[in-house]
């Protein structure tokens, strides 16, 4: 009897020792696997936010597997535990459905890279510089120093403009002139300004053309190309130059004419 008890407790002690060893080995194995995955992702130049998210999910998932394995080693039935964890996971996923969509959108943005930190984008009337790309939100700082927090769901499901995607941009200025203006003289003067500007590109070539004729005005389109870095400088300098040319050449700005027609009614007011 005593021998059976000793044997029983010896088996139990050995099983407990094996379980502790299994737990320690499994716990350290998780760290090794995470370290290997982290190195692989760094070599792949994956964004740090995505890397941290994937490592966190792997860390939780692998540790749950280790804990379930340890519990099974102790002889505790794990079927019901797995069922509870599955049900709880489904309930959490359902409750966090919108957040999970946002996370998926954030990962999509970070992998596809339609824009990166420092790019100038426009969405929903906001124009600014991308300050940070998080899993749920993208933070944009507008030019008047307002922080705009945009859900990644909106960025993935709607259209936006990335002004920094290409290295160069076209400066486009629309002008209204009086029909009597010497357009060729104006074009010649403005083209000289564009050609002498240090940041206006020679290729693609600048262009000044008539885009529309109206009864009281002529519309001109001014096109000049510049790098993203100097876009606003070229745009502002051309506007100033255009104003000076208007003054030098005494160009008239067309005014809108409103014709008012008064129609006399045939009503007889004598009996009123």
Automatic annotation (TrEMBL):
Mechanosensitive ion channel MscS domain boundaries: 98-165
Domain of life: Bacteria
Keyword annotations: Cell membrane, Membrane, Transmembrane, Transmembrane helix
Subcellular location: Cell membrane
Primary subcellular site in the record, as a coarse category: membrane
Residue ranges of the TM segments: 20-37, 49-72
Its membrane topology: Multi-pass membrane protein
One Pfam family this sequence matches: MS_channel_1st
Domain Mechanosensitive ion channel transmembrane helices 2/3 residues, every copy: 57-97
Similarity annotation: Belongs to the MscS (TC 1.A.23) family.
PANTHER family in UniProt: SMALL-CONDUCTANCE MECHANOSENSITIVE CHANNEL
Protein name in the entry: Mechanosensitive ion channel family protein
Species the sequence originates in: Massilimicrobiota timonensis
């Amino acid at each position: 009897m005593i021998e059976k008890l000793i044997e029983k407790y010896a088996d139990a002690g050995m099983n407990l020792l094996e379980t502790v060893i299994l737990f320690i080995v499994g716990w350290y194995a998780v760290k090794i696997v995470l370290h290997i995955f982290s190195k692989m992702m760094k070599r792949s130049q994956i964004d740090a936010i995505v890397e941290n998210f994937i490592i966190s999910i792997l860390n939780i998932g692998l540790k749950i597997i280790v804990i379930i394995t340890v519990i099974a080693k102790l002889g505790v039935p794990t079927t019901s535990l797995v069922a509870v964890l599955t049900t709880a996971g489904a309930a959490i996923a359902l409750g966090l459905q919108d957040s999970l969509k946002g996370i998926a959108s954030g990962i999509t943005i970070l992998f596809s890279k339609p824009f990166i930190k420092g790019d100038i984008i426009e969405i929903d009337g906001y124009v600014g510089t991308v300050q940070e790309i998080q899993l749920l939100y993208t933070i944009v700082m507008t030019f008047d120093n307002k922080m705009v927090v945009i859900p990644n769901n909106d960025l993935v499901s709607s259209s936006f403009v990335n002004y920094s995607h290409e290295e160069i941009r076209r400066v486009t200025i629309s002008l209204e002139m009086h029909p009597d203006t010497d357009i060729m003289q104006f074009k010649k003067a403005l083209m000289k300004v564009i050609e002498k500007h240090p940041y206006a590109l020679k290729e693609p070539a600048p262009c000044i053309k008539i885009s529309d004729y109206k009864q009281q005005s002529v519309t001109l389109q001014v096109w000049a190309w510049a790098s993203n870095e100097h876009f606003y400088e070229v745009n502002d300098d051309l506007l100033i130059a255009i104003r000076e040319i208007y003054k030098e050449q005494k160009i008239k700005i067309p005014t809108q004419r409103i014709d008012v027609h008064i129609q006399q009614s045939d009503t007889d007011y004598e009996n009123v």
